[in-house]
Amino acid sequence: MNQKKIAMNIDTKADYIVIAFTGDLEYGMIEEIKSELQTLSLDTKHGYIIDMQKVTNIDSTGFGMIVNFAKKVSVKDKKIAIIVVDDFIRNLFAISQVDKVFPIAKSEEQARKIIKEDWLGELSLNDY
């Protein structure tokens, strides 16, 4: 039987923080990671890049974790961009309309540019 796994790596850059997820962001899998995100220091100049390049699946629990983290970040006037390269994951973002709340980038460089600019989504975080 294939054991599902999840991992999170945090990489602090000069003016932003990259949070890279690996595996399945699903119900029953993310409790420990959710706790780590809630205790993460918000000490960054521009904001956060959530790297989903190695995510194989995400459900409503995973999206909820990202949205809750974003609400915490927005209180500090920091921004979030999300890297999504996989078509399946990109479709899940579209179905859930999370792509209307957060900018979706194809690379860290593109995401870095986004968090330094003013990006307005179709939906506000509070309306989502």
Question: What's the gist of this structure?
Answer:
The protein is of the alpha/beta class.
CATH topology assignment: Transcription Regulator spoIIAA
The coarse overall form would be globular
Ends apart, CA distance between termini: 37 Å
* Superfamily (CATH H level) name: STAS domain
Q: Mean pLDDT, nearest integer?
A: 89
Instruction: Profile the largest sheet.
Output: 5 strands, mixed
Ranges where pLDDT stays below 50 over 5 or more residues in a row are none
Number of strand elements: 5
Number of domains: 1
SSE arrangement, N to C: EEHEHEHEH
Protein name: Anti-sigma-factor antagonist
Domain STAS: 6-115
Could you please describe the fold and organization of this structure?
The protein has 128 residues and is α/β, with parallel strands linked by helices. It has a single domain (6-116), classed as STAS domain (Transcription Regulator spoIIAA, 2-Layer Sandwich), CATH 3.30.750. It has 4 helices and 5 strands. The protein has helices spanning 31-39, 60-75, 87-96, 108-116; strands spanning 6-12, 16-25, 47-58, 79-83, 104-105. The protein has a 5-stranded mixed β-sheet, sandwiched between helices. The longest helix is centred in the middle third of the chain and has 16 residues, at 60-75. The radius of gyration is 14 Å and the shape is globular. The termini are far apart. The mean pLDDT is 89.
